[in-house]
Amino acid sequence: MARELLRVQVKPEMLRWARERAQLDLAALRETLPAVDRWERGERNPTMKQLERFAVMVRVPLGYLFLDAPPVEELPIPDLRTMPRPSRQPSPDLIETIYLCQQRQEWYRGYLKGLREEALPFVASVRVGDDVVRLATQIRHQLHFDIAERSRLPSWTEALRRFIEQSERAGVLVMASGIVGSNTHRKLSPEEFRGFALVDDLAPLVFVNAADTKSAQMFTLAHELAHIWLGESGVSDAHAARFTGERVERWCDQVAAELLAPLDTVRAAYRPDLDLQEATAALARQFKVSTLVILRRLHEAGIVDAEQFQASYAAEIERLAEIERRGTGGGDFYRTLRVRVSKPFAEAIVISTLEGQTLFRDAYRMLGIRSPATFQKLTRELEMA
After folding, report:
1. Mapping DSSP to helix (H, G, I), strand (E, B) and coil, where does residue 235 land?
2. Of 249, 253, 248, 250, nearest in space to 128 by CA
3. By the 8 A CB rule, do 97 and 180 touch?
4. CB 151 within 8 A of CB 286
5. Mean pLDDT: which of 72-86, 228-242, 319-333 is highest?
6. What is the DSSP letter of 326?
């Protein structure tokens, strides 16, 4: 009872910082903590139990709240985001996702070193400014990425799955998730970031924000692969219709667009007898990319002028947003898990654990699971029982 009633002194600005850091408004906290407004105004102090609950809700260590001033939190890799946003402060969700992927990458690198695997020659093999068409061709060759094959795939979902599979066979871990770890209550925001690359010559890793559309994820993966070839880690907000002035991101966007939809092929496939919306949709289906990528390519080909591009882009954004609002949910848990952590990583950690090289508790933590039954089912799903 004494713990329930004990009130602790916390600076109101620290409470406000923690809430804003978590990108929560007062209304989101008020239902559980009715007096949170008064705490922020300095009119009342919380009890220790209330402060502990607040720390959990805003996802900060309890000790942070007793500091005199907010700590300076920086991303552990370069911040290459260029799109305007309300706050440049990275969210706890983004920071934790990067740290989790770094832990997985470190483990996987050690695993590959134990197998005496050799470094991947394509990592950090190019420089910014290298010929975009030549590099896109090189990446397609490395991944066995066939434009004609992609056109025959029935959907964007299948095309993305195939793209991920090709990247992983080449040696790149691809982790695609729309949540933090396995916490379905902590959704990642495409408005904050779309992906990041963690460069390593043995275990390069790409993370794709799966809260984005499937077609947008295709562009993000292509963009982050360009970062792997370049040898520069970083968080990106890759967008097909962006023409940023930032040199590295602009070049990676150009490589991504050429990789997914080669300009000469797009120009040859364009049908001037159709209106722009129909022609764009037809090309998007053919190349299994977003209509925004096609609009970018048509603009770069000189088929669509700047005014048409901007108008069509705005209309297309609105149309895609409506499709996402009608989107479907659900899906197979184990298939989703393999995508979240990358199938090669899942297979490696299961093998290592079954061989006694990795503790079960460490495997559970890095896979984002909790029970032996889930681990056993994953083992069967990977056909490794």
Report:
1. strand
2. 248
3. yes
4. yes
5. 228-242
6. T
- Contact yes or no for 116/202 (Cβ under 8 A): no
Q: What is the rounded CA–CA span in Å between residue 385 and residue 379?
A: 6
Q: Would strands 195-198 and 234-236 be described as parallel, antiparallel, or unpaired?
A: antiparallel
The closest of 101, 122, 104 to 112, measured between CA atoms, is 104
175 touches 342 (CB < 8 A) = yes
Reported as a single tens digit per residue, the pLDDT across 317-333 is 666 666 655 555 555 77
**Chain center to CA of 248:** 18
Distances (CA, A) of 65 to 16, 18, 71, 123: 10, 8, 10, 42
Paired sense of beta strands 173-177 and 205-209, if any: parallel
SS3 29: helix
| Average pLDDT for 350-361 | 94
Phi, then psi, of 198 in degrees rounded to 5? -115, 105
**Residue 55 parent element (H or E):** helix 48-58
Question: Do you know the residue count of the chain?
Answer: 385
**CA–CA distance, 65 with 320 (Å, rounded to integer):** 41
Kindly report the backbone phi and psi dihedral angles of residue 117, in degrees, each rounded to the nearest multiple of 5, phi listed first. -70, 150
Phi, psi of 354 (to 5 degrees): -65, -30
Amino acid at 382: L
- Angstrom distance (rounded) from CA 274 to CA 294: 15
Hey, what are 139's tokens? 């990446």
